[in-house]
Amino acid sequence: MTQILAVKKGDAPTGKNVAGLQAPELKWKSIGDANSTMERRKKRVKYSNIKEARKQIMGRDPMVFGTEFQTAAEMYKRLKSLLRKNARLNYQACHSIVADPECSHGKRATLVARDIQKAADVSFNHKVTITAPLQSRTFYTLRFRCTCAYCSPAQRDELPVMNQVNVSGGDTTENLPSCQGEVEVTVMEDLRHPLGIVGQQIRIQIRH
Asked: Could you tell me the superkingdom of the organism this chain comes from (predicted)?
């Protein structure tokens, strides 16, 4: 014979009759936690897949570049130290930051070029590029001519004069003494954060 349990509104069931019952609010909380966990897992998988797809297309991880530092200060300090020890140099380094929606790749590259000149004492005119910027939706590159002038005046007279472009867009006829080395600054999109936070990877290459 089936036993019917009558529960008045507002009464809390007790004893063996509550077996298998769940408070609605606990049930909804459990579902919400599960959904939140699933969303985090989906984000990790999404950005992991992006990284793996890039590896397959490029044949290597495109985010690996030279020596990666934690901060710009560390990167500039190392560069400054190497410049004091070496007449010739091929320095490749990078570090990443959280992207600022108000600062485009192009604007960031211009700021980094100015910082390199001031913080690391690299000899180049950060306002005058060799060519027009190389750019796409995901990266921006500026190239500058080194002006350290370690070669002799006679050697400089034999070097070909290259056209230079003002960062603001106009041409310039300024021909500065140069070792014909280059300073290259690239800022590119960085999607490696496990929670999907968009970053910017800042790359510098000094060849002189």
From this structure: Eukaryota
- In 3D space, the residue among 174, 188, 192, 171 whose CA is nearest the CA of residue 112 turns out to be 188
Question: Coil, strand, or helix at residue 183?
Answer: strand
CA distance 110 to 185: 8
User: Which residues, at least 6 apart from 120, have a Cβ–Cβ distance to it below 8 Å?
Assistant: 76, 79, 80, 83
Q: Which residue has the higher pLDDT, 92 or 171?
A: 92
Q: How far apart are CA 38 and CA 30, in angstroms?
A: 12
Judged against a pLDDT cut of 60, whether residue 67 lies above it is answered with yes
Q: What is the pTM of this model?
A: 0.60
Amino acid at residue number 138: T
Start-end of H helices in the chain: 24-58, 72-85, 105-119, 153-158
Q: What is the pLDDT of residues 100-125, one digit of tens each?
A: 999 999 999 999 999 998 888 888 99
Separation of alpha carbons 175 and 188, rounded Å: 30
| Tokens 């939706």, located at residue | 137
CA angle, 118 as apex, 112 and 119 as ends, to 5°? Answer: 80
H helix runs in 86-176, sequence order: 105-119, 153-158
Whole-Å CA distances, 105 to 61, 102, 127, 152 = 20, 10, 16, 37
